[in-house]
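To the wet lab folks,

You asked to see what we're planning to order before we commit. Fair enough. Below is the target structure as tokens, and below that is the sequence we designed to fit it. If anything looks off to you, flag it before the synthesis order goes out.
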């Protein structure tokens, strides 16, 4: 039985900024697979610094990937894509600030999920060699799926298969984890998978927060760890499981010290080397 529909937020718009890199191709596969599962609109967005350059041919091939996944025949016309229940739009913008261009688009066309490629364990994508992914996720207020370059992810580029067997959700009182739990339930239901989901609390077990779970709790469990360093414990448990995806509730930067050291979510992203779903607590 799937999770209670009262817990499932609707995914209507998936937004994927691309820099045409090899790592971004894997993130594109995740964006396309989620959009297919949710029957959502998918926007592919690229910012080009040179105003006289129109790199439309460099955008990832939607029909090529769908044909590889055997969802449409090779050589299918563009009309074959909306027939699958999704609407794909490719948008090219000009400018030297990818974050501002993406945020301007999202201001006019809000997304429910942003899918981003990050490079290596330092969270820095290739776009103009600037840290684009993390500030975009903080400012957009959309749920953001980070797909690290060099990881295998949980969606196969070759056949669209989903390998989502183990999932980790760190929980605490602030920010509350319900938004992340709801989003994970929706994502898994849409993708047709039932992973083992571990809710991890680091600290005093007597201070563990109560978290509302889906009605069908098969495969969901809690793990209490009495550690002082949440970051180290989250990364350790993610490696131990091993987790195919980490999902975290986030409020972004809170105050001067947090802005200096980076939020826990961003530090986990840099250290974990695996896909991470950041869900704003106030969705």
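Sequence we intend to order:
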């Amino acid at each position: 039985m799937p999770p209670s529909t009262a817990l499932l937020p609707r995914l209507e718009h998936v937004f994927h900024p691309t820099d045409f890199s090899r790592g971004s191709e894997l993130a594109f596969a995740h964006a396309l697979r989620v959009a297919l599962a949710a029957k959502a609109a998918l926007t592919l967005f690229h910012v080009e610094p040179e105003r006289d350059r129109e790199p439309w041919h460099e955008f990832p091939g939607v029909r090529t990937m769908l044909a590889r996944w055997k969802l449409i025949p090779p050589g299918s016309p563009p009309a074959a894509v909306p027939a699958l229940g999704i609407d794909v739009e490719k948008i090219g913008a000009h400018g030297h600030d990818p974050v501002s261009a993406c945020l301007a688009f999202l201001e006019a066309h809000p997304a429910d999920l942003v899918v981003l490629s990050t490079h290596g364990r330092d969270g820095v994508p290739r776009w103009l060699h600037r840290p684009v992914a993390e500030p975009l996720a903080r400012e957009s207020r959309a749920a953001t799926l980070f797909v690290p370059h060099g990881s295998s992810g949980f969606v196969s580029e070759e056949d669209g298969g989903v390998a989502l067997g183990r999932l980790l959700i760190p929980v605490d009182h602030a920010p509350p984890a319900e938004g992340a739990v709801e989003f994970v339930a929706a994502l898994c239901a849409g993708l047709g998978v039932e992973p083992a989901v571990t809710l991890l609390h680091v600290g005093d077990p007597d201070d563990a927060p109560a978290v509302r779970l889906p009605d069908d709790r098969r495969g969901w469990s809690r793990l209490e760890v009495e550690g002082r360093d949440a970051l180290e414990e989250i990364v350790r448990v993610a490696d131990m499981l091993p987790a195919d995806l980490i999902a975290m509730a986030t409020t972004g930067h809170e105050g001067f010290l947090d802005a200096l050291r980076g939020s826990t979510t961003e530090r986990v992203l840099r250290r974990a080397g695996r896909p991470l779903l950041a869900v704003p607590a106030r969705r």
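Structural context that might help your review: The chain has two domains: 5-149, 166-250+258-275. Confidence is low (pLDDT under 50) at residues 1-8, 120-129, 254-261.

Thanks,
Computational group
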